[in-house]
Write a structure and sequence with these properties.
Number of strands: 22
Shape: globular
CATH topology of the domain at 2-43 and 215-283 and 420-467: FAD/NAD(P)-binding domain
EC number: 1.-.-.-
GO molecular function: oxidoreductase activity
Family: Belongs to the flavin monoamine oxidase family.
Distance between the termini: 46 Å
Cofactor: FAD
Protein name: NAD(P)/FAD-dependent oxidoreductase
Largest sheet: 8 strands, mixed
Strand content: 15-25%
């Protein structure tokens, strides 16, 4: 078995791990990045399917995502605006389609009034939340013990208003039913984007795309690291030593054919995968419990490519919403300078469970039928059809990110990023600002690299001091 030694071992070649690795290299520390997959990028993945370039994973850039935007500029990547000219469509509980403009769905005046009031109330609550420390809110415990569905039920008995407000968090973001996560978790999701209003505004949250695909970020970061990125290397065990007065005990990672020894380790992958690694000694009790209260959401990202963007001929932007449809939201996802038109739709949580009980052909038929309710019968006949199913990805196990069960965030959130001896943690699931987005992954990569550089300097200084004291003692 081959063996290498580095200052820092990074597990996971996604945006967080590769950002951290590049920062550490710039600081003069040696690194090795071990990636279980045969590619870099993690939940960023651009591929060509039947001649069509599809962004199978994350893809959008929002105006508030400063860390991502700075990285794009530094890497020389360009963006383009998502197509949004024309009217959006909404399908209500009766199945009636209505065209509209703006952010608020075209509902009855009384329902619209309630929705506006709920958005304003949520914005006020979100303004009190620190996305890096939501558990520090004075009412954190109470908010974390009430599901978002229960909270909405207390606010109003207007079911359509509740369904639509829940859609922005449950279906569109956490991809879990609103009864499965807390109000505090919902507020964190909104606070990570700046406000609840930002989640409601599709033109904000889904503002731009990267020409050539967002996976270019990890691809270009990995290029700079060269042979220090090793693919097809799932870590089977991680031996670690506890912190001591003079530093850390170091780590030894073992894959099927490689051993890596390092002073520090960064776990830069989804926390639901921590249990794929055998830790020696085991993780402390606190982390063992914490990790059992996190789970991934579940969503199918559906790509439908047509010979042209036919919906634009109808004066439609391609933006579509309905909590009552199988595909609860959909957008024009046409690539830059592409004559063909692409729609992207999303089927989440219980609906996704249901369609995976069907055959592939029947599932496709059902999903395209749902899209046709928004765009007309032509939506049933794409030239390319593809489903991004992250729930079946061995090294991801869901999408878009991990969130806590009821009560878990205020109970365990403060320890999400707490290092365990020489082991540090970084991924979008742990972010405050940019939570569950590549922007958050980059932020976490920068943060953990900074922490390790500081720890490295501290341990080096301590070791130097110890050596000086020993020398002085021997001379006396």
């Amino acid at each position: 078995m081959a063996e290498i030694t580095r200052d820092v071992l990074i597990v996971g070649a996604g945006a967080a791990g590769l950002t951290a690795a590049n920062d550490l290299r710039k600081a003069g520390l040696s690194v090795a990045v071990l990636e279980a997959r045969d590619r870099v990028g993690g939940r960023l993945w651009t591929d060509v399917i039947e001649g069509a370039m599809l962004e199978i994973g994350g893809q959008w850039v929002s105006p508030d995502q400063d860390a991502l935007k700075e990285t794009l500029e530094e890497l020389g990547l360009s963006t383009y605006s998502r197509y949004r000219e024309g009217e959006s469509v909404y399908i209500g509980p009766s199945g009636e389609l209505t065209r509209f403009t703006g952010d608020i769905f075209p509902v009855a005046p009384a329902t619209e009034k309630i929705m506006v009031e709920l958005i304003e109330k949520l914005d006020a609550m979100v303004a009190e939340i620190d996305p890096d420390r939501p558990w520090a809110h004075p009412n954190a415990e109470a908010l974390d013990e009430v599901s978002f569905e229960q909270w909405l039920a207390v606010q109003t008995d207007d079911q359509e208003a509740r369904d639509n407000i829940a859609l922005f968090i449950a279906g569109a973001m956490l991809t879990k039913p609103a009864h499965a996560f807390s109000t505090l978790q919902a507020l964190l999701m909104a606070a990570s984007a700046g406000s609840f209003s930002n989640l409601v505004d599709a033109d904000f949250i889904l503002d731009e795309r990267v020409i050539g695909g967002l996976q270019q970020v990890p691809l270009l970061l990995a290029e700079r690291l060269g042979d220090d990125v090793l693919l097809n290397q799932p870590v089977r065990s991680l031996e670690w030593g506890p912190s001591t007065g003079s530093g850390t005990g170091g780590v030894t990672a073992t894959t099927d054919d490689l051993t890596v020894r390092a002073r520090f380790a960064i776990l830069a992958h989804a926390p639901v995968l921590y249990n794929r690694i055998s830790f020696v000694p085991p993780m402390p009790r606190r982390q063992q419990q914490l990790h059992q209260h996190l789970s991934m959401g579940f969503v199918i990202k559906v790509h439908a490519v047509y010979d042209r963007p036919f919906w634009r001929e109808q004066g439609l932007s391609g933006t579509a919403f309905s909590p009552y449809e199988l595909a609860h939201e959909a957008y024009d996802n046409t690539n830059h300078d592409d004559e063909r038109g692409t729609l992207v739709g999303f089927v989440s949580d219980k609906h996704a469970d249901g369609v995976f009980e069907l055959s592939a052909e029947e599932r496709k038929e059902r999903i395209l039928e749902s899209l046709s309710h928004y765009y007309g019968p032509e939506a049933k006949s794409p030239v390319v059809y593809y489903e991004s199913d992250w729930g079946s990805e061995e090294w991801t196990r869901g999408a878009y990110a991990a969130s806590f069960d009821l009560g878990g965030l205020h109970r365990y959130g403060n320890d999400l990023r707490t290092p365990v001896g020489p082991i540090h943690f970084a991924c979008s699931d742990l972010a405050g600002a940019g939570y569950q987005h590549v922007d958050g992954a980059i932020r976490m990569g920068h943060l953990v690299a900074s922490d390790i550089v500081e720890a490295s300097r501290t341990t080096s200084a301590a070791a130097g001091s110890a050596a000086t004291s020993a020398a002085a003692g021997s001379e006396s």
